[in-house]
Amino acid sequence: MVKDEIAGRLEIAFSQHGFAQMSVAELKVASGVSLRTLYRYYPSKESMVIGALEHRHQRYLSLLDEEQSSNPMDSVIAIFDGLGQWMENNAPKGCLSMNALAAFPHNEEVNEAVQEHKQQIVQLLARRSASPELAMELFLIHEGASLAWPTMGDQAIVAAKNVVRKILE
């Protein structure tokens, strides 16, 4: 439980302040534990990033799993509604995974964590759309909407849902 709580606090710190801004000393304060405890669970800043990303990934998937429908169109639109809600409440500076990749472009473990997250989103879109052959197209719309969110806000979600409806009709 302690590890998960630390990961949640690290996620918030990275989301609010970015990766470059946060020193390990600041992450210790943000995590609410001693440096020794922080390092016991996360022995490097990169492992702290991965812990935060994995925690965030689970929270995002849980949000998307809340609203499901037997109708594939409604089920995919619910994913985009969830994305809009997520961006508004949890990602004011954009996709944390992509921000982590930009901050640690040569770190293999960070890259793998981001790849795993993105691949699971593709799989979710394949299942929910009942059209695995369209999963990558839907994923690109999802990613585009999340990247456009910081500048376009809800307009990005509305436009993404309009395109999804056209593709799935």
Write the SSE topology.
Elements: H1 2-17, H2 24-31, H3 35-41, H4 45-66, H5 72-90, H6 96-103, H7 108-129, H8 135-152, H9 154-168
Helix pairs in contact: 1-4, 4-5, 4-7, 5-8, 5-9, 6-7, 7-8, 8-9
What does this structure look like?
The protein is mainly alpha-helical and 169 residues long. It has a single domain (2-168), classed as Tetracycline Repressor, domain 2 (Orthogonal Bundle), CATH 1.10.357.10. The chain is 80% helix and 0% strand. The chain has nine helices and no strands. Helix 5 runs parallel beside helix 8 (135-152) and helix 7 (108-129) packs across helix 8. The radius of gyration is 17 Å and the shape is elongated. It starts with a helix and ends with a helix.
Question: Which outline best applies?
Answer: elongated
Strand composition percent: under 5%
Please identify the top-level CATH class. Mainly Alpha
What's the helix-strand series?
HHHHHHHHH
Work out the helicity level.
over 70%
Which CATH architecture is right?
Orthogonal Bundle
Class inferred from helices and paired strands: mainly alpha
Q: Rg to the nearest angstrom?
A: 17 Å
At the third CATH level, what is the topology name?
Tetracycline Repressor, domain 2
Distance between the termini: 45 Å
Number of discrete helical segments: 9
Low-pLDDT regions: none
Q: What name goes with the CATH superfamily?
A: Tetracycline Repressor, domain 2
- Total count of domains: 1
